[in-house]
């Protein structure tokens, strides 16, 4: 009985791992279609209302944002940290999609006031300044009012024509990350500074198209994050919430009704409203953890 139970758990873990990989593969392929290729100014795939809308405009980050380096060590010391106060984030808190700051050190209200130029706002994007310089994360409402450390750079969009959630997704796109890595300096360890980031060039469509693309990809991020949490819970033998456990007749699939898209089939229905079906690769699941390709 125990062996059968463990075998079933192993099979479920493998199936959910395959599902997570499929979600990530889908997003990567979708980004390759929704963003222009290198040397091009029009993407291969556009939502219906933006077909024929014209070329995307190339802009440097310095044209659309204010970029600042975090406070240097002489301004803030480890001895300044307290048990309760305002969190200050550093490189280790940059998650795959957003900030993971549960263990972030904290500073007093007086230090926060002293370091007010380094207070974060919702929509800010923070970068690793050294090492993995292509790592970045967007600040959500939950992190508004936190601070960033000297190991980070903060980018704040200052133009009405640009949407920070779109820029966040563009910066996750591999060609954008490669451009940042290629422009980093340092022989032993790559590093960034404000001037380097200001010169990074990216392509932007109209604000409404930016918002549409950002909403689509951000919803997929939420789906991937939820799936990763479920997989972690299974691996550590934690008991998931009853609402997320496989239900009778579900073929072993785990529900995800709390997310914007419960599955890629739901995402498919959303995308088909605005995208050419022939270009979109959508994955379905047959309950065994294997994927099938539908067009």
TrEMBL record:
Among Pfam families, the record links this protein to: Methylase_S (PF01420)
Q: Give UniProt keywords alphabetically.
A: DNA-binding, Restriction system
Instruction: List the GO molecular function terms.
Output: DNA binding
Q: Name one GO biological process term.
A: DNA restriction-modification system
Q: Which InterPro entries match?
A: Restrct_endonuc_typeI_TRD, Restrct_endonuc_typeI_TRD_sf, Type-I_RS_S_subunit
Q: Where are the annotated segments for Disordered?
A: 236-257
List residues of the Type I restriction modification DNA specificity domain.
55-235
Q: Which domain of life is it from?
A: Bacteria
* Protein family per UniProt: Belongs to the type-I restriction system S methylase family.
Q: What is this protein called?
A: Type I restriction modification DNA specificity domain-containing protein
The organism encoding this protein is Candidatus Kentrum sp. TUN
List the lineage, top down: Bacteria, Pseudomonadati, Pseudomonadota, Gammaproteobacteria, Candidatus Kentrum
């Amino acid at each position: 009985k125990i062996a059968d139970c463990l075998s079933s758990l192993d099979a479920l873990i493998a199936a959910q791992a395959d599902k997570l990989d499929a979600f990530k593969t889908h997003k990567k392929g979708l980004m390759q279609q929704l963003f222009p290729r290198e040397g091009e100014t029009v993407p291969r795939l556009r939502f219906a209302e933006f077909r024929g809308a014209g070329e995307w405009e190339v802009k440097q980050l310095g044209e659309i944002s204010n970029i600042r380096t975090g406070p240097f060590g002489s301004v803030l010391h480890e001895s300044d940290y307290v048990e309760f106060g305002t969190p200050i984030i550093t490189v280790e808190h940059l998650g795959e999609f957003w900030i993971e700051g549960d263990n972030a050190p904290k500073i007093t209200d007086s230090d926060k006031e002293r370091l007010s130029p380094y207070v974060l706002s919702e929509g800010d994007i923070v970068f690793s300044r050294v090492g993995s310089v292509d790592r970045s994360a967007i600040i959500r409402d939950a992190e508004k009012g936190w601070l960033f450390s000297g190991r980070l750079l903060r980018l704040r969009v200052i133009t009405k024509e640009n949407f920070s959630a779109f820029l966040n997704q563009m910066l996750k796109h591999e060609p954008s990350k490669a451009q940042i890595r290629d422009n980093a300096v340092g022989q032993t360890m790559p590093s960034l500074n404000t001037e380097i980031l200001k010169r990074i060039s990216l392509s932007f469509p109209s604000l409404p198209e930016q918002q549409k693309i950002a909403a689509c990809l951000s919803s997929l991020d939420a789906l991937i994050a939820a799936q990763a949490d479920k997989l972690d819970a299974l691996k550590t033998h934690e008991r998931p919430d009853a609402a997320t456990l496989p239900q009778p007749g579900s073929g072993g699939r785990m529900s995800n009704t709390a997310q914007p898209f419960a599955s890629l089939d739901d995402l498919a229905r959303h995308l088909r409203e605005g995208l050419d079906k022939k270009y979109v690769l959508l994955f379905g699941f047959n309950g065994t953890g294997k994927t099938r390709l539908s067009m």
